[in-house]
Specification:
This protein has 554 residues and is mainly α. It has helices at residues 3-19, 68-79, 109-134, 145-158, 164-179, 184-197, 199-202, 224-235, 242-249, 256-268, 274-283, 304-324, 330-333, 341-347, 374-379, 388-399, 423-431, 434-448, 482-492, 494-509, 518-528, 535-544, 546-549; strands spanning 64-65, 203-204, 219-221, 336-339, 358-361, 462-463, 466-467, 471-473, 479-481, 550-552.
Length: 554
């Protein structure tokens, strides 16, 4: 039999084994809304993980397919595969601002075909890279070598121990290799290909007894292996490593001490940089910078290099905050950032030379946290001028979790400016239309506060000779003047604390939050987004929450 024909046969067998687990399918629809729950009083009032013990139970996550980024990191960490096979998959849809939402991670026929191709490529590369580690016995001397090899391999690939039935299915492929005259190593490769097509790999936390689902509405604690998976994909965006799986197998994740030990270790690991790539960058909507198009004549310095520098600044800012374990509020109020010569020119900082980013302190009268960073200000500007509406929408969506509704059909765009009319006056005229006021009364007053920043985020004292009016208003009526006051007003209020917690929990859980989560969001935000609390306090509070550690059946 030719190799390509044999590969096709193995693919069919692998698909058959995958479909034999169809009983673990889940529609992974979004949560149904439930009533908000009250806050308890007494000794638990200061513990964000305990304050909501009497609240309505958690909302269902359902089966959660690996995203493209998670797939690439997972095969990298499992087998050293660095070819990024998932880059060929269709882009993952975003729900609630994040691409790991279970409700949108479906598998189309096109993706199924690409997953099969990827499974074959990864299995081949894994065996080529590391056959000696994967196969740690000699089948000539050990009759159980195949089964023991598959058992050890499945623990890592499935992120839990395989059942004997699952091992029986995988042994079919080892036996197939033998009957076709292929080597023992070929048989293990075929079985690995089947594992990589199985729901147990493609979806997180598929239970071993997937045909025996829970009763509808039943809430259960995640077992240690499922908790290990949720923790590793939260902090690393990747699979549990051997140490975490060992802790799960020994039952050490069931108590806070054992869980905290692994939590601290994982935050110190370089793989936790995934929190920037998959959480922070999506929260800040940094993908929009790709579409920014400053006018090349007005801004000749802007190009691919400066765009990458802007993004790298945000990465360094986030990683510096994590390394110092600073307060989440520094995202709004921090004045320490990282610049090179081109970014320094935007900030108006003298004495910086070269292309390497170095730490600096920015002018606290002009700059505060992410709000005034060039990446944010450039992606919310037009080719020549800042865009008040876009900047207001970004503040509303990203920092207040107040997404403006789309404009009603048939609503005309904002009117053209009249001679001598400022942008603020033009938008005030636009808001005079009652159909436009409902959205723009939220958006525009937020964007006004960023008028001192040009299309690349450079400070400007006037707008074409006209004085700048950067007085703005928050939805609660609080007034501020300028970007720095806007940042401080947000830091002093409750809305940002709840929004930041909501964004983090949405990402950590991979689902849209519902009314039942409000108590948890409020209590965690109040306790951990303060000047005296750290970013690790927030992350830990999410991990300790019932929402993170339990699941509910539909």
């Amino acid at each position: 039999m030719l190799r390509n024909n044999r590969t096709a046969t193995v693919g069919v067998l692998a698909l058959g084994l995958a479909f034999s687990s169809a009983g673990c399918r889940d529609d992974a629809t979004g949560p149904a809304d439930v009533d908000d729950a009250g806050m308890p009083e007494g000794d638990d009032a200061g513990d964000p993980a305990a304050q909501c013990e009497d609240a309505v139970g958690p909302v269902r996550v359902g089966l959660q397919r690996l995203t493209r980024a998670e797939y690439n990191r997972t095969v990298r960490d499992l087998f050293g595969v660095t070819s990024a096979p998932a880059d060929s998959f269709p882009p993952d849809s975003s729900t609630g601002g994040f691409d790991n939402n279970a409700s949108s991670l479906t598998i189309s026929p096109q993706l199924a075909s690409l997953l099969l191709d990827a499974a074959e490529a990864v299995a081949t590369e894994a065996i080529a890279n590391d056959a000696g580690q994967i196969i740690a016995c000699d089948p000539a001397d050990d009759s159980d070598c195949a089964r023991d090899t598959l058992r050890a391999l499945a623990l890592r690939v499935y992120r839990r121990p395989a059942t004997e039935s699952e091992l029986d299915d995988l042994m079919v492929l080892v036996d197939f290799a033998a009957t076709e005259g292929d080597t023992f190593t070929d048989g293990i490769e075929y079985a690995l290909q089947a594992m990589l097509m199985a729901p147990q790999f493609l979806y997180r936390s598929v239970p071993a007894d997937s045909m025996n689902l829970l009763n509808e509405g039943e809430v259960v604690a995640l077992d240690d292996y499922a908790l290990a998976s949720r923790l590793s994909y939260f902090l690393w965006g990747s699979t549990p490593d051997d140490e975490l799986l060992t802790s799960a197998g020994e039952g050490r994740l069931a108590d806070d001490e054992g869980l905290r030990e692994q939590f601290d270790r994982m935050l110190d690991d370089p793989r936790s940089e995934a929190l920037y790539d998959s959480f922070f960058s999506q929260w800040m909507q940094l993908g929009k910078l790709e579409a920014a198009s400053p006018d090349p004549d007005a801004y000749p310095s802007y190009g691919e290099n400066l765009r990458e520098d802007m993004l790298e600044e945000t990465r360094r800012f986030w990683e510096d905050l994590r390394e110092r374990d600073g307060s989440v509020l520094e995202l709004l109020t921090g004045t320490r950032t990282f610049v090179n010569d081109e970014l320094a020119a935007i900030y108006g900082i003298d004495g910086i030379t070269g292309s390497q980013l170095v730490p600096v302190q920015t002018d606290p009268e002009q700059r505060a946290g992410v709000l005034t960073m060039p990446a944010i200000l450039t992606m919310t500007a037009g080719p020549l001028e800042p865009n008040i509406v876009w900047r207001g929408v970004w503040v509303a969506e990203t920092l207040l979790c107040a997404t403006p509704p789309p404009p009603p059909e048939g609503i005309p765009p904002a009117p053209e400016p009249t001679p001598g009319e400022t942008e603020r006056e033009r938008l005030e005229r636009h808001r005079a239309d009652p159909q436009c006021a409902s959205c723009h009364s939220l958006i525009d007053p937020l964007g006004f506060g960023l008028e001192h920043y040009g299309a690349l985020g450079q400070w400007r004292d006037d707008d074409d000779g006209e004085p700048i009016d950067d007085l703005g208003t928050l939805p609660d009526g609080s007034e501020f003047e300028g970007g720095v006051q806007l940042a401080q007003t947000l830091a002093d209020g409750e809305d940002f604390r709840e929004c930041a917690t909501e964004k983090l929990m949405t990402y950590a859980l991979g689902r849209t939050l519902g009314g039942a989560d409000q108590c948890t969001v409020s209590s965690i935000g109040e306790a951990t987004i303060t000047p005296d609390a750290s970013i690790s306090d927030l992350l830990w509070a999410v991990v300790r929450s019932d929402a993170f550690q339990t699941e509910i059946a539909r």
